[in-house]
Amino acid sequence: MSDLPTQLVDRYGRKVTYVRMSITDRCDFRCVYCMDEEMTFMPREKLLTLEEIVFLLRAFCELGVEKVRITGGEPLVRRNVDWLFKQLGELKATTALKELTLTTNGSQLPRYAEALAEAGVDRINISLDSLDADKFKALTRTGELQQVLDGIEAAKQAGFKRIKLNAVIMKGRNENEIVDLAEFAINNGMDISYIEEMPLGHVDHDRGESYCSSDEVLEALQGHFSLQPSIATTGGPSRYYQVADSQNRIGFISPHSHNFCSSCNRVRVTTEGRLLLCLGQEHSMDLRDVIRRYPGDMDKLKQAIVKSMDIKPEGHDFNIEAKPVIFRHMSVTGG
Ligand code: SAM
Ligand code: SF4
């Protein structure tokens, strides 16, 4: 056995305890801020297999990673995804893994919510940008609002207590629903986070015009709710406010206006096994190559992961007005 650490730490002393893993770049929706209407998806042989994903995540969790979030694309459109979650749930018994979470558009939850609860998924984030069926359709291009509302209900029925909604607010699209979305969340016992649009990949609108800052969203909310800044964190980049007279919180993910790099504890793995050390930079390591070159060699894989800590950059710098410098779509990166 080699002298591998039990905790990943980068050059700036930040502990890496959180991995977000994209398990597919495919999706049943085409949200306007995330994808083009016509997308070319990756050839299947380039994707990590489900077995490779389990192997990879086991390596991270044996190196001290405590939280894994499965994302995409839409993770629940991947075939046999219930098998994957069962394997990952079992890592909690043998590794540092404490929290297994999922980000989904909710459309497949009626089918999978129970299996996810049984597998040991702790929390689910569901994206919901509009409560108006027509606007929802316009934002997602192919999505049906009712499908997602049924998905939220299925998650509640399956016993998920900690469901969080995620909403990307865009000027001229859904900015007039900021308060309605928060009310819907609170009335259903859920937290909600508002996400600033990020310039990831080419889309067919001007992101500079649609961009709505967290401060603008907060201002709209403050007219309707009494909000107290909260010190709570879920290990992610959200800043939270407690809603008075409620158990629920409202969060803001603000990569532009409140850069969160100094406390960054996470890395991402793309659908094809590329380890991204920063959402806004191209620094990466090809872990699929290591896995396929040395099949079954856990030490080799762990050594590569430990080495990658040397290239985790200090931070990112998004500029919404400029052309995208990051050509990856969020669906490949894993939002
Ligand atoms: N399909 C799942 C979903 O929509 O929740 C998981 C993947 S999606 C890429 C994860 C999150 O990223 C979603 O909440 C989505 O709203 C957000 N997202 C996608 N593209 C974005 C962008 N350009 N800027 C900000 N958020 C984005
Ligand atoms: Fe699909 Fe999620 Fe991207 Fe929407 S945000 S297109 S649901 S991957």
Task: Characterize this entry briefly.
The protein has helices spanning 50-62, 81-94, 109-119, 133-140, 145-157, 178-187, 207-210, 214-222, 287-293, 298-308, 330-333; strands at 8-9, 15-16, 18-22, 67-71, 99-104, 123-127, 163-168, 191-195, 227-229, 239-243, 249-253, 266-269, 274-276, 284-286. The protein is of the alpha/beta class and 335 residues long. The chain has one domain (8-333): Alpha-Beta Barrel (TIM Barrel).
Task: Describe the protein's topology.
Layout: E1 8-9, E2 15-16, E3 18-22, H1 50-62, E4 67-71, H2 81-94, E5 99-104, H3 109-119, E6 123-127, H4 133-140, H5 145-157, E7 163-168, H6 178-187, E8 191-195, H7 207-210, H8 214-222, E9 227-229, E10 239-243, E11 249-253, E12 266-269, E13 274-276, E14 284-286, H9 287-293, H10 298-308, H11 330-333
Parallel strand pairs: 3-4, 3-12, 4-5, 5-6, 6-7, 7-8, 8-11
Antiparallel strand pairs: 1-2, 9-10, 10-11, 12-13, 13-14
Helix pairs in contact: 1-2, 1-10, 2-3, 3-5
Bound molecules: S-adenosylmethionine and iron/sulfur cluster (SF4).
How does this structure look, described?
With 335 residues, this protein is α/β, with parallel strands linked by helices. The protein has a single domain, classed as Aldolase class I (TIM Barrel, Alpha-Beta Barrel), CATH 3.20.20.70. It has helices at 50-62, 81-94, 109-119, 133-140, 145-157, 178-187, 207-210, 214-222, 287-293, 298-308, 330-333, and strands at 8-9, 15-16, 18-22, 67-71, 99-104, 123-127, 163-168, 191-195, 227-229, 239-243, 249-253, 266-269, 274-276, 284-286. The strands form two sheets. A twelve-stranded mixed β-sheet has the order 9-10-11-8-7-6-5-4-3-12-13-14. Strands 1-2 form a two-stranded antiparallel ribbon. α1 (50-62) packs across α10 (298-308). It is globular, with a radius of gyration of 19 Å. It starts with 7 loop residues before the first strand and ends with a helix. The model has no long low-confidence stretch (mean pLDDT 89). It binds S-adenosylmethionine and iron/sulfur cluster (SF4). Residues 27, 33-34, 71-72, 74, 103-105, 127, 166, 168, 195, 197-198, 200, 330-331, 335 line the site of S-adenosylmethionine.
